[in-house]
Design brief:
two-stranded antiparallel sheet, single chain, TIM Barrel, 261 residues, alpha/beta, seven-stranded parallel beta barrel
Length: 261
C-alpha cells in the first residue's frame, strides 16, 4: 500500500437531478458524505430552481460545487448516445449550460470548483479525440480557470490537459471498466456495481495499487484524485458511506481537491 503519496481524495456525486415534482436520489443525505457535487445544469435533468436548491445545500454542508452539463435530453436523462452532427451547436449548448450555472452560483455567493461532463456525452468524449476536444474547448472558452473533472486515462483527460485548464482525474466506484479505461456500457450485464462492500473494496484497491482491474481481468495504471458514486443509484447513500468509512479507516482523508494540477 502506498499511502505516502495518497493521504486524501475527493469523493463526488452527481446531484440536483430532480425535475419538477419528480425526485431523483437523496441529495441531502449524500451531501453529508461526499466532498464534491456535480449539479445538473437543466438539459439532462434539474433546472434553475433545482440548481439554486442544490447549491444552497452544498454551501450549508461545505461541499465543493461543480457544473454537470450534458446532452439536451430530458427524456433520456442524458444517457442516450445522440448523434453529434453540429459541433458548433454542441459547443454552444455546453457554454450555455455552464454559463447559466455560473450565473446562478454567483447569485448565491458560491464558487464553482469544477466542471464535469454528464452521461452519454461524457462516455462518447472518453472514446473520441475530436469530441473530447470540442467539449473541453467549450469549457475553456467559458471558464478557463475552472478545473475539469475528467475520467482518467481517456481522451477526455488528454484534451483537458492540453487545454491548459486545471484537471482532476476521476474514477468510478460503481461502474466496471473496459481495458482501455472507458466504462462498460450500462446495457451490458454487470456494468453497474450495486454491492456497497464490493465498491468500497474496489475503490480502496484502486487507490492503494494505483491501478484498475478491467472487467476482462486486465489492469491499467491510474492515479485517482476523485471517486464518483452516482447519486441516482438506489444504494448510492449506503455505498458512498461505506466507501468513505473504508477510506478513512485506511488513513485517507475525504476532501475536495485544493489545487488541481
Amino acid at each position: 500500500m502506498n499511502q505516502s503519496s495518497i493521504n486524501s481524495i475527493d469523493l463526488n456525486s452527481d446531484l440536483g437531478e430532480s425535475y419538477g415534482p419528480w425526485t431523483m436520489g437523496n441529495d441531502s443525505a449524500m451531501l453529508d458524505i461526499v466532498s464534491s457535487a456535480n449539479i445538473a445544469c437543466g438539459f439532462h435533468a434539474g433546472g434553475p430552481e433545482e440548481m439554486v436548491r442544490t447549491i444552497k445545500l452544498c454551501q450549508q454542508k461545505s461541499v465543493a460545487i461543480g457544473a454537470h452539463p450534458g446532452f439536451d435530453d430530458l427524456r433520456g436523462f442524458g444517457r442516450r448516445r445522440l448523434p453529434v452532427s453540429d459541433m458548433d451547436g454542441l459547443q454552444a449548448q455546453l457554454i450555455y449550460q455552464v454559463g447559466a450555472f455560473m450565473g446562478i452560483a454567483r447569485s448565491e455567493g458560491a464558487k464553482v470548483a469544477h466542471i464535469k461532463l454528464h452521461g452519454a456525452l461524457s462516455n462518447m468524449a472518453c472514446e473520441d479525440d475530436q469530441l473530447a476536444n470540442i467539449c473541453v474547448t467549450a469549457f475553456h472558452r467559458v471558464a478557463p480557470d475552472i478545473a475539469i473533472l475528467a475520467q482518467a486515462v481517456t481522451p477526455l483527460e488528454v484534451a483537458a490537459r492540453a487545454s491548459g485548464s486545471p484537471v482532476i482525474r476521476e474514477v468510478f466506484a460503481d461502474r466496471e471498466y473496459n481495458a482501455d479505461g472507458t466504462l462498460v456500457a450500462r446495457s451490458s450485464s454487470g456494468a453497474v456495481i450495486h454491492d456497497s462492500k464490493r465498491a468500497a473494496d474496489r475503490v480502496l484497491k484502486m487507490i492503494e495499487e494505483q491501478s484498475i482491474t478491467a472487467i476482462d481481468g486486465q489492469s491499467f495504471e491510474v492515479k485517482p484524485e476523485s471517486v464518483c458514486v452516482h447519486g441516482d443509484n438506489p444504494a448510492a447513500v449506503k455505498m458512498a458511506g461505506q466507501i468513505r468509512m473504508a477510506l478513512e479507516k485506511a488513513g485517507i482523508r475525504i476532501a475536495a481537491p485544493a489545487n488541481p494540477s
